[in-house]
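#data-curation
PF: Archiving a pair of folding outputs for the training set. Convention for this channel: one message per protein, sequence first, structure tokens after, nothing in between. First:
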Amino acid sequence: MRSEEHSLPFLTEGLPGTGGTLKEVPEDFLVEELPLYEPCGEGEHVYACIEKRGIDTREAVRRLSRALGVAEREVGYAGLKDARALTRQALSLPRVEPAQVLALEVPGLRVLSAVRHRNKLRLGHLRGNRFRVRVRQVAAGAAEMARQVLAVVEKRGVPNFFGQQRYGGQGNSHHIGRALLQGDHRLAVNLLIGDPSAVTDPAWRAALEAYRRGALAESLTLLPPFCRTEREVLRRLQARPDDWRGALRAVSPRLVDLYLSAWQSSLFDRVLAHRLVELDRLRPGDLAWKHVNGACFLVTDAAAEASRAASFEISPSGPLFGPRMAWPEGEPCAVEEVVLGEDGLSREALVATAAAPDGARRPLRVPLTEVHVAEDEDGLLLVFALPKGAYATAVLREVMKGPP
């Protein structure tokens, strides 16, 4: 996927980029969840705002549930945050006291506030996220360059690319998803185990080279502990050689869904690349996305809807392909059919594919808000907010003019 990501076009083509690097320092990347609503102060749940570093949301849930004696499944959260940033988000905890939560000392996180509320937090119960990003080793005049770029992006919208972080550590999750979708079990296993040239860890690379030679026992010995799924797949393959389908049963349903979702994401990115020049304009036949509620409607008169697009009330949408997805008409439909065809599928074949995810629509652009740019001796500081489901990397690649 890396070469595909590098080839994605820029909305602000022609404007200079700041260049720079993002360091693996949590304080250089702060993600703050923007709540959909505030806790009301009463009820059986406690909404705990936590700050965490070095652990993802699921690990934070595990640690808090153990500390409080609460079942993990009863802990609610609105969004998943990874381990590579300093992040702030809310978790809901049932049948505990706010003072009890505030007094916790849990490695990797601290509790910033604890307030009662009536219901459990559910996935999606957030407006979006605010990002504070430090870009180091930037070009001279980086702040002014960034302001010029972000002024265009604020006006026209952030290209809603998924980008490279959607495709896994080896950049091939979407290829695994395609192989699963097409029922090519051997290819799916080979892709899942991976390509030695795509990893830098010496033991991991040696394990993948051993697999390529057919030395499964040696590969199992060399695989790092974090390759849990790969190890289980290899164990099954060692027990029953050439049973590729049986080996894939070691992959959890959640991970299978992630692979299929990555495949959808890669095709969405390709459709968006086709439409990028007119990101903020609607065509006849488009399915327009209402930003207020995520509903879509068919555009029959693009000129009549132009003012609503200009005010960011509505935007063109793109496909997360699946048999139950709504299709546009006219030229927008033709673009989507071409992209799907380039991947070896048709609308009819997609409907007949049992493994295909349902499908949905996604806006081709999202609004950028709360923008702030500053520069000091440490580099460039960018602050901005995005709606839920949008990625900060889509903003950063426009500013830096390269994959962050």
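PF: Second:
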Amino acid sequence: MTANIHLLFSKVLYVKKINIDCNQILNIVKKQTWSVSGLPRDKNNKQISLASKNKKVLDDVKYKNLKKEIMKEFYEYAHKILNYTNNEFKMTTSWFTKTYSGQETGYHNHNNCMFSGVLYLKINENSGGINFNNQENFRFLLEPSKYDILNGRDFTIEPKVGHIIFFPSEVYHKILPSKSNEERISLAFNFLPVGKIGGVGDSQAYIE
């Protein structure tokens, strides 16, 4: 009799190429001011990717259609895939990232939000993908003869222009080093549930 395999407590990663005019969005990027993203690796901050100082770029009414498209895709993930249909969600922050040759970020996750996402606007095969890492406290470290979804502790996506991804905010991830002479540009965002959270007997809360 064949054994049944169940993937317990999965972290669900959503990846899809959407039909959106990335060149039009890139015009927004030209108006941004930038700061170093995360902790510096050297005194000149040359190895760290950049983030727009504006962390609510999609709150501008001029970009309401873009935000609407992102939210529409997010609900495919939150409502139709994860079945969190008892709550609506709101985008709490949104910002651009820019990476030049040799730049990257360290592993990090996003606090004070439930889900996070990225839309890739300008990227090529040498720009550096996004790597997800399981940083749970493992009791033993074994080297499998073959890495797969059942034993792997990290997972890398090599996105293309127009790809959008969503993932739980607690998952550690990083931008891999760019080996491209062209800049890599993406748009990132975070989400929180709206309405009542918690079940009967739990510490309930209400988020407006």
